[in-house]
Amino acid sequence: MGFNTGTIETEYAEVTEHWSPRVIADLNGQSVKLAKVQGQLTWHSHRDEDELFLIWKGSLTIEYRDRPHVHLSAGDFHVVPRGVEHNPVAPEECWIVLFEPSQTKHTGDVVTEKTKTLDAQRSHLPA
Fold this sequence. Notes:
CATH architecture: Sandwich
CATH superfamily: Jelly Rolls
CATH class: Mainly Beta
CATH topology: Jelly Rolls
Largest sheet: 7 strands, antiparallel
Shape: globular
Structural class: mainly beta
Helix content: under 10%
């Protein structure tokens, strides 16, 4: 894969579906993904991977079953620890940036109609 260059705004313009992460860069075994989210995703965990949420625009709540929920606004970030069940919720559209290992499944081992495969998240990238 070649060098990635672009703007966040240009990449967000290509995101047309909520809860559909778009890989914009891969580096050192990690992926940087953009997504527009609204409503709730699903309860899930990532057994072996931590997941960093950075809020670009709007607000998001990370719900947890076993600890207090985390409320995030533009400019805030939060790391969901590996193996911890969580559910992202955004009452209004929120733009997020995700940093996570490249092999991280969108909704862990839970599959719903919102789940996007790793291939789907990368389908726009050159081979």
